[in-house]
Each structure stands twice: as structure tokens, then as C-alpha cells.
Design brief:
The complex is a heterodimer of chains A (289) and B (297).
Chain A (H helix, E strand, L loop, with lengths): L10 H4 L5 E2 L2 E11 L3 H4 L4 H5 L5 E8 L6 E7 L3 H10 L11 E5 L2 E6 L2 E6 L5 H17 L24 E3 L24 E6 L8 E6 L3 H15 L9 E2 L5 E7 L2 E7 L3 H21 L1
Chain B lengths: L7 H7 L25 E7 L12 H16 L4 H8 L6 E4 L10 H13 L7 E4 L7 H4 L3 E11 L3 E3 L17 H4 L15 E12 L18 E5 L2 H20 L10 H8 L11 E7 L7
Parallel strand pairs in B: 1-8, 2-3, 2-4, 4-6
Antiparallel strand pairs in B: 1-7, 4-5, 6-7
The chains are: A alpha+beta (289), B alpha/beta (297).
Chain lengths: 289, 297
């Protein structure tokens, strides 16, 4: 049973929601959920948001006679890194200029800005509701806190061939298998104190996958790298890529307090080349500190 | 010689299966021999006409599909004999359905199952179709037999919404089964309200969901008309086959490997840790009936 939590919003949050867009009027009822009761509102997916640091959800409805209702969900993710992470978690083809990144898909507008992740949903989609979703999103983005920087870890990804929409940023091990099955267990010790990136590249007709995990210190990175090496039978010596059962080459390395890995369908040399680019980026960053 | 089997890694990577401990002991009254099958049988039946252009389910086609699948599963001479094979007149039958608002079990299928149970001679008042609230449902609480039916879909925490997961409403505190991406959902099947009672599992593959997005994990972009049902006595085997189809569809749609994410580890662990059934494709006899275009397996 959906347990609605009806409570007045704080004045600042009340001011965020436009009262009328394209004939859709803001309904007076507001729902607020925290991590303790998010599952009452999101049936079966609360853990996804919690794994990205979710703090609070403000949910509002917009109504228009003869049209399906619009649901606006404003997720306070506690920080811009988490907001980017939950947006990027399912991005496929972002390109709208709403908030810091936005994507529209069949009656669903998603975007992030600052510490907030926003979804606007209308099902079934109508031509009118599509216009309303986009306008509502733009108006809300204008009222949200100013844009924030993206996670600094993203700067470690080599630019050449990077498929921007493929980037995933997370702090929970559940999301490590997005592009390559790594393990059912948390062999890389990914957790709240770490930052992890996954990305695909388009290089020479191949679509290699890059994994980068940053740890609080070198010792933690070393332990994780050792576990990763055991799992994939990586040789101790540097400069070696190992062919996996699926034919892809895996190259991995420990650089300062980061573990980097590349899965490449081309050759061992190509895997090592991309890994070397990653390592160079990491070393550059350390030098600048 | 050491027997070759799939590793746990192989199973999850391929959306497939791991080594089985044995076939599920199906609670067929008076048919103990059914437990000795060398392979666990799963029936996949598809029909291009089961869903109309506007998404309307053709109840007659769906009922025929179900009857044919159950008959094939049990090797009986006709549908009526199959339902009588599954249920005795004095059974009390709970049909555990799924009402998730974006992709629920079609009412036409619930009705087809109910009619099959009634055809076996079960009294109308001893049959209940329910999802939430089973713990307060008098029929479910005194049930001697269960039918498990739900649509297959991706799930943001367990990887897949499966037959195994469909029994989570038999506990008052479902989050208890959330740790490690719902790894131990098979433990639900040891609950006294459930254990040994499931006679039939029906995984709805009419419009399966192969990817999740959005606040409620659903967008119509990520379902497709597969027009199928997967039917079996072993929920692990049926889920294992369904997972392979979802994985194949993800590869087809995205044009690249996209592992089910998080891995639906609960399917494989239902086999290797909980010994509920078999997830290993090598130990599953998949019988394919009907429409073969785009079958993906």
C-alpha cells in the first residue's frame, strides 16, 4: 500500500515549483519522502536512489482537464556528484539544454542540476504533455540552485574516442557490471569512501570499456588491486594484457591511489595503450596537487 | 572425471545458469515419478496473435497458449487432464499474481489459470488470485497449492523481477530480503505458507521489460512484444530461461554487451546455495512451441 506522506514543504521548496505550465496546474498536495520511506513511493527501486546518496524526495502533481497528469519528482541527492551519478546511471542520449544534463524519453524528462536530480513523468505521453514537460523542466531548472561542478574524477578519462553518454559514476558496487561483468561480489572494495567511473570508447572500430576506481589512500587501492588481480589472474609484471574467455583483452594497473582497467576487443597492445593514457592522466593530476 | 559445469561467473555473465543440485520436487499428487526427470522441463510458447495492435490481449489465444504449454509440460493427453494432474478437487489454491502498475499480470491470464484450476474440480470459494495482501487472504493462508504467475522485467536492485521474487509478499517486511541485491530470495520458498506448495510457475513474456529507467523504473521504450509464456514446475529453471531471453534482447537492442545490472544473482544462488531448482541450461529441457520469429533463444 502506498503510504502518502502529506506535509507542508518548507517555504524555499514551495517556491521552486511553477504553479501553471501549458494549462497544467500545480496540485496542492505535496509528498515528501526520505530514505526511510522512499520504498513506499517507489515500488522496488528505492535502493537505486539510496545507493547514490539520496536524502529527500519532493513529489508534486500537475493536472489539466482532458490530459494525463504530470508527476514531478525532485530528488535531493545531498551533493552534485550524487546528482550527476544518478542521472548518468541510465543516460543513453542526453542532449537537451535543461539543467546541467537532460534527456527525454517517451513521456519522461530527466535532468540534474546542483544537488538535485529531477524527473518529470507523463504517461501516456501526448503532444501537449511533451511541450508541458519541457517547459516545466526549464522553469524548474531556472529556480534550482546554481549549477555545480562535475566530479573531478571525470577529468581522468582520456578524451580521444570517449563516448560521453556512456560515462557512469558511482560509489556502490552494485553498478560495477554495467558494461562488463566484473563480479557478483565487491572485489574492488567500492563503497562510500571511493569513487568509481565506467566509460566506453570508440576507437578503431572497437568499443573498449574503461574502469577507474579512486580510493582514500594508496594502501586501500593496493588491496583492491590485489583482489582484482587474483580474480582475473593478472600477472604481477606491468605491461601485460590478459585475454579473457570472451576474447577481449584486459589490462589493469595500480597508479597512486587509483585502480584502472581496460577491456578491449582489439588487441593487447590497444588495451595497454588506453591504460597508459589513463595512467598518464592520473600522474598528471597528482603532479598538479 | 570431474563433471563440467558452468561457473557462477559464467551464469551471471550470460544471464544464464549455474550447476544444479537437482530438479525441483514438484508437488504433483500421485505422480512421484515426475520428480525423476533427468532434465527440468520448461515450455516456451509464443503466438503472434496474442496481443493486438493496440496492446489488447486476446484472451482466447492466451488461454489456448496456457493450456497447450501446461499439457506439454506434463505430457498429458489434453488440457483438462493436465489441470487434473496438477490439482485435486479438495485443494485450496492461491494464485500469486503481480500487480506492479507499469507491467502487471494480464487479468486474462489470471482468469485462464483460475478456469484451469476450477476445471480440475476445485471449488470456486477455494481459489484466490492475489498479490499484495496474501498474508491476510484466508485462501492463501490455508492453501494446499499455489500457482505463481508474473511478468518478467528488469529490476533496479535484484537485476530481474522473477518468479523467485514474486513470493516476497509472503513476508511482512520485504526489505529484509534486499541485502546483496536480493541474493537470497530463494529463502522465501522455505516459508511455511509456501514450501512445497507450488504446482505451476508461469513467467509472462508477452511484453517483457528489458531495461529500467526513470523514477519508477519503467518506460515503454524498453518493453517489446515477445508474445510468449514460459511455463514450468521449477521456478529457478523458468527464471533462468527468461533471464537468457532478456539478456539476448539487451544485446540486440543496444548493439553491444549490456549485462543485466545488477546481476540477477538470486537465480543462480537459488540453485547453488538454496538447492531450490536448476539454473543450468545444460540441465534444462527447453521445449519451444509456436511462433519462432525473434525467439532469441
Amino acid at each position: 500500500m502506498l503510504l502518502l506522506t502529506m506535509m507542508p514543504l518548507q517555504s524555499d521548496e514551495n517556491d521552486l515549483f511553477p504553479v501553471m505550465v501549458q494549462g497544467w496546474a500545480l496540485a496542492p498536495e505535496a509528498e515528501v519522502h526520505t530514505a526511510l520511506n522512499l520504498y513506499e513511493y517507489i515500488d522496488g527501486a528505492a535502493e537505486l536512489y539510496i545507493s547514490y546518496g539520496f536524502e529527500k524526495l519532493f513529489s508534486r502533481r500537475y493536472l489539466k482537464q482532458g490530459q494525463p497528469e504530470i508527476t514531478l519528482d525532485l530528488f535531493d541527492m545531498g551533493g552534485s556528484g550524487n546528482a550527476f551519478g544518478i542521472f548518468a546511471h541510465s543516460q543513453e542520449n542526453p542532449g537537451l539544454e535543461i539543467g546541467q544534463d537532460a534527456e527525454y524519453l517517451d513521456g519522461l524528462l530527466r535532468f540534474w542540476q546542483g544537488r538535485y536530480y529531477v524527473t518529470l513523468l507523463c504517461s501516456p505521453e501526448t503532444p501537449e504533455s511533451r511541450l508541458a514537460l519541457l517547459e516545466l523542466g526549464r522553469k524548474l531548472a531556472e529556480r534550482l540552485a546554481p549549477a555545480a561542478g562535475r566530479p573531478s574524477l571525470l577529468a581522468l578519462l582520456p578524451d580521444a574516442g570517449l563516448i560521453a553518454a556512456s560515462v557512469r559514476y558511482f560509489r556502490h558496487p552494485a553498478w560495477q557490471n554495467t558494461y562488463v561483468f566484473i563480479a557478483a561480489e565487491n572485489i574492488l572494495d567500492i563503497g562510500p569512501e571511493t569513487e568509481a567511473l565506467l566509460a566506453r570508447y570508440d576507437r578503431g572500430g572497437q568499443r573498449p570499456v574503461v574502469l577507474l576506481v579512486a580510493y582514500p589512500d594508496r594502501a586501500a587501492a593496493g588491496r583492491a588491486f590485489a583482489g582484482f588481480g587474483r580474480k582475473f589472474d593478472l600477472p604481477a609484471e606491468r605491461g601485460t594484457a590478459v585475454r579473457q574467455a570472451d576474447g577481449k583483452y584486459l589490462a589493469a594497473g595500480l597508479e597512486n591511489r587509483a585502480v584502472a582497467a581496460v577491456w578491449h576487443g582489439g588487441s593487447a597492445e590497444q588495451a595497454l595503450e588506453l591504460l597508459a593514457e589513463l595512467r598518464a592522466k592520473i600522474m598528471d593530476l597528482e603532479k598538479k596537487k | 572425471m570431474k563433471k563440467k559445469s558452468m561457473s557462477r561467473r559464467d551464469f551471471i555473465k550470460n544471464g544464464a545458469a549455474g550447476l544444479a543440485a537437482g530438479t525441483l520436487a514438484l508437488a504433483f499428487p500421485g505422480k512421484p515419478g515426475a520428480q525423476a526427470l533427468p532434465k527440468t522441463r520448461v515450455v516456451l510458447i509464443r503466438d503472434p496473435d496474442v496481443i493486438g495492435e493496440k496492446g489488447v490481449v486476446n484472451a482466447d489465444v492466451l488461454r489456448r497458449m496456457l493450456d497447450q504449454a501446461v499439457q506439454t509440460l506434463l505430457g498429458e493427453k489434453n488440457a483438462l487432464a493436465s489441470w487434473k494432474h496438477l490439482f485435486k478437487p479438495d485443494d485450496v489454491v492461491g494464485i500469486k499474481t503481480n500487480v506492479w502498475r507499469s507491467l502487471a499480470t494480464p487479468p486474462e491470464l489470471e482468469e485462464a489459470i483460475r478456469r484451469g484450476v476450477l476445471a480440475a474440480g476445485v471449488k470456486d470459494e477455494n481459489v484466490s488470485v492475489r498479490d499484495r495482501g496474501v498474508l491476510n487472504d484466508p485462501v492463501f493462508m490455508k492453501a494446499t497449492a499455489l500457482v505463481n504467475v508474473r511478468p518478467m522485467r528488469t529490476h533496479d536492485w535484484s537485476g530481474l523481477g522473477t518468479l523467485l521474487k514474486n513470493y516476497i509478499m509472503f513476508v511482512p517486511d520485504p526489505p529484509r530480503f534486499h541485502p546483496d541485491s536480493c541474493a537470497d530470495l530463494a529463502a522465501l520458498w522455505q516459508l511455511p505458507q509456501v514450501k512445497g506448495k507450488t504446482r505451476l510457475n508461469v513467467l509472462v513474456m508477452l511484453t517483457p521489460q528489458f531495461h529500467s529507467v526513470g523514477p519508477h523504473s519503467f518506460n515503454p521504450t524498453y518493453v517489446w512484444k515477445y508474445n510468449g509464456l514460459l511455463v514450468g514446475s521449477d521456478p529457478v529453471a523458468v527464471d533462468s530461461v527468461g533471464a537468457r531471453i532478456i539478456q539476448a534482447r539487451r544485446r540486440e537492442f543496444f548493439g553491444e554487451d549490456r549485462p543485466i545490472n545488477p546481476p540477477a544473482k538470486h537465480i543462480e544462488l537459488a540453485d547453488t546455495r538454496h538447492h531450490l531448482g536448476t539454473a543450468d541450461p545444460a540441465k534444462i529441457e527447453l521445449v519451444k512451441l509456436g511462433w519462432s520469429e525473434g525467439i532469441l533463444i
